[in-house]
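In this supplementary section we document a worked example of the pipeline. Step one takes a protein sequence of length 198 as its only input; no multiple sequence alignment statistics are reported here. Step two produces a three-dimensional model, which step three serialises into structure tokens for compact storage. The input and output of this example are shown verbatim.
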Amino acid sequence: MKLDRFYPIFDSVEWLERMLPLGVKLAQLRIKDMPEPDLRHAVTEARAICQKYDTTLILNDYWRSAIDAGCDWVHLGQEDLDDADIPAIRRAGIRLGISTHDHDELERALRLTPDYVALGPVYPTKLKKMKWHQQGLEKLSEWKGLIGQTPLVAIGGMTVERAQGALDAGADIVSVVTDITWNDDPEARVKAWLEATR
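The serialised model returned by step three reads:
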């Protein structure tokens, strides 16, 4: 399965409902701190919306919910890997994306044969405080050399204007959060992203 090059991350089903009709074909649902029954409902809704628009849904963190809802993809950070049941995820036929920031994390990720590897933050990010400073485009090129055919996702501080540079440096996919959700006109920004990555 080939993933789209434009990979927005949204923190609610409402965002999916709003943005998928514009032509988004790959999206992550990243919800933090939601009670289990509400989460289950949100994942089921998100899956239905993504099916309606023929969009690949990647669920962040909640691998048990991904299994229960019959999701196709889950994304795990390094901390999530500590208690994730990778064999159970694989038995459920779920594909796996993994965040990496340094060589040790990349080695750990590659041992799990992920379906994509994410590197970030490529640029300084406004979304969360991280112990890693910006990785830069050179590191994207290095990572691509190390992971070969495995798709590489560039994330962190990505904007429409920076997208081509990340793709030229070796990223197969560019992931974005605040450049859309913090934008005064998110719909126009998504259209600009689609134009820049297709």
